[in-house]
Amino acid sequence: MSGRTRPFIIGLTGSIGMGKSTVAKMFVEEGVPLFDADAAVHQLQGPDGALVEAIEALFPGTTGREGVDRQKLGAAVLGNPDAMQKLEKLIHPAVGEMRLAFLEENQDRPLILFDIPLLFEKSGAESVDHIVVVSAGEEHQRERVLARPGMTEERFSHIKALQMPDAEKRAKADSVIDTSLPLAETRQQVGKLVQKLKAALA
User: For residues 28 and 113, what is the distance between their CA atoms, to the nearest angstrom?
Assistant: First the structure.
């Protein structure tokens, strides 16, 4: 595996409430640079974000001084496939450019991490070398999600219905990180995986 011209890309994914953000931070603590797709979208839509003007032109009244009002934008595109497609045509290329810039900045690193929530659902699996699925028991997931502000059983069911079932994700994964365990044990799993991947690249 030596002689690579770019870093080895780990794709991190997992359903809602599985602890993906926590695990992403653990990879960063192990020295693996992180590209967070959600954070990139927030940046593009935040104050002075590169896409704010274009989003306002497409969906008038959905932006303000703080950038995009995510609730207003959500209301404008929810249940409207045509509007959603127009929005995605704006967002995806912009995020892609940020990802390329991130790759260039980190081209000398052995490993990098792409945090992609809908890795399987949006067919991003081909763009990574190793897929890590963050998983937990159903009760752990439910408890975490329903503890979030403004979350309801109905909303949780709706989000789950849009995501590939956890068992399917685990079956497609190259590695699974279990977050049902104490944090120290989850951190240990991440550390072992990073060492294993680095050793395979050496």
Answer: 9
CA 50, 107, 98: angle at the middle one, nearest 5? 10
> Strand 130-135 and strand 8-13: pairing?
parallel
One-letter identity of residue 120: F
Dist CA 27 CA 23 (whole Å): 6
Give pLDDT tens digits for 161-192.
Answer: 888 999 999 999 999 999 999 999 999 999 99
CA distances from 149 to 130, 154, 183 (A): 33, 14, 23
What average pLDDT is seen over the chain? 92
Instruction: Give alpha helix (H) positions in 50-80.
Output: 52-58, 70-77
Task: Give the type of residue at 48.
Answer: D
- Between CA 81 and CA 158 the distance in angstroms is 16
- Per the CB < 8 A criterion, the answer to whether 7 and 13 are in contact is no
Distance in angstroms (rounded) separating the CA atoms of residues 76 and 33? 35
Distance separating alpha carbons of residues 8 and 110, to the nearest angstrom: 6
